[in-house]
Amino acid sequence: MPLIPTKIKIAAGNDSMAVEWSDGHKSVYLYSELRDQCPCAMCTDKHASPAKPETPFPMFGAKRLKLEKAELVGRYAVQLFWNDGHSSGIYAFEYLRELCPCDACAAPARIEPAG
Ligand SMILES: [Zn+2]
Ligand SMILES: [Zn+2]
């Protein structure tokens, strides 16, 4: 069974988005993390560039990054709409789940200790 989000809450507090998955797992993503991992061509280009900006979002200046909308794309992805007008990031469910910052998902090994 494919893993899909059953619930997406974009304003989950503390500048984060909360996702509930079909397997019962709950993920909470900071806006800054999500935007930083934006899979669109424009952003991945930027990630690949060797020059590191001093702040993660220099183009916003003092403006605070906010997620305005999350829309499902077919049955495989979710598209995020940001308050600066950026909306070309389409996060496949699989990718989104990989980004889950929780301890369980961040752990390097997924093998449960026996007994
Ligand atoms: Zn992007
Ligand atoms: Zn997780």
Describe what this molecule looks like in 3D:
- With 115 residues, the protein is of the alpha+beta class.
- The protein is globular.
- A hairpin with a 4-residue loop joins strand 2 and strand 3 (26-30).
- The protein has one domain: NE0471 N-terminal domain-like (2-Layer Sandwich).
- The two termini are 27 Å apart.
- Strands 1-2-3 form a 3-stranded antiparallel β-sheet. The protein has a 3-stranded antiparallel β-sheet with strand order 4-5-6.
- The chain contains 4 helices and 6 strands, in the order βββααβββαα.
- The structure holds zinc ion (2 copies).
Structural class: alpha+beta
- How much of the sequence lies in strands comes to 25-35%
The average pLDDT is: 87
- The strand order across the widest sheet is 1-2-3
Count of domains: 1
Give a quick account of the main beta sheet: strands, pairing sense, barrel closure. 3 strands, antiparallel
User: Which percent range fits the helix content?
Assistant: 10-25%
By CATH, the topology is NE0471 N-terminal domain-like
Bound small molecules, by name, code or SMILES, are: zinc ion
Could you give the order of the helices and strands? EEEHHEEEHH
C-alpha geometry: globular
Are there runs of 5+ residues with pLDDT below 50, and where? none
Number of strands: 6
Using the coordinates above, name the CATH class.
Answer: Alpha Beta
